[in-house]
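I am writing to request your help with a piece of structural work I have in hand. Here, with my thanks, is the record as I have it:
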Amino acid sequence: MILASASPRRKELLGNAGYELVIAPADVDETRLEGESPCQLVQRLAELKADACLKTYGVLEPGQTLLAADTIVWMGTEALGKPRNADDARRMLRELSGKTHHVSTGVCLMRGTPSGVDQRSFVETTDVTFKDLTDAEIDAYVATGEPLDKAGAYGIQGGAGAFVARLKGDYNNVVGLPVTRVQEALSRPDFA
């Protein structure tokens, strides 16, 4: 499988699921379009990354698979990307404290066929509720440096796992890729 991502979390999730990977990250403009919902954004970005990777990589051989994904943390209509600095991480974590937010991952799968490429895209959303966080908890977590390279300023698989009061949906989606849904899509008989 060609993985159009440099995410160590996606690489680990797919590796644990038994996939042999060729890492070929794709760089695309991730600017949100006016009026675009968070789910529309991640699906469009996953498809753009898949297209960019395919152009760079070349032809997919029959049966060869390419996967591209993009994950967003959001509340209401606000997308919470990676924090600019420690103060921005604190702001985001205060915003998430005691509330439910959403983590959506857009996935684009391409598989080579004798006549070209078959493509499937989907978006998986998980609802995450944080407990009420104290300033001391937020400061201690930010001091670890962990939130600085993560959308929404947290990694559920790390220290912020202790912040989660409830989770509705796929845990791995919050880590970075809904592996079960990917496997289901890849095993469908109508996906060449």
About this structure: The chain has six helices and seven strands. Residues 2-187 form a domain with the Maf protein fold (CATH 3.90.950.10). The longest strand covers residues 116-130. The radius of gyration is 17 Å.
